[in-house]
Amino acid sequence: MTKRVIQNGSSIGPYSQAVVVGDTCYVAGTGGFLPGTSQLVEGGTEAEIHQTMKNLQGVIDEAGYQMSDIVTVTAFLRDIDDWPLFNTIYSDYFSPEAAPARAVVGVADLPAGANVEITCVAHRQDAVR
What we know:
InterPro entries: RidA (IPR006056), RidA_CS (IPR019897), RutC-like_sf (IPR035959), YjgF/YER057c/UK114 (IPR006175)
GO molecular function, one term: deaminase activity
Strand order of the largest sheet: 1-2-3-6-4-5
Family: Belongs to the RutC family.
Protein name: Reactive intermediate/imine deaminase
Order of helices and strands: EEEHEHEE
Mean pLDDT: 92
């Protein structure tokens, strides 16, 4: 099986934004960075969650998948009290009837002082290779 690497210029370390192997796309931790930079969007947690979801969608699109192909999500929140806000914004990106499995974890800190980070796995039988 071949491995296809997705890079969009927003990573802040030596890793790929996503790796596609077979019919599965593995997306690295994605945060609220301005596209193509290592600078967090201004505006606090709400703005970061919106930008994180947009960035996640951008990586998924670039890999040839759709948000509906995502089967599992892990989200990391610097303040677990932001969970209701996260849910509200997150629900704009996924149909309640077909939402992926998900875990949300409260953490002490995130790279670059971010307030949110999301990683996911997407799968589909007719994936672009």
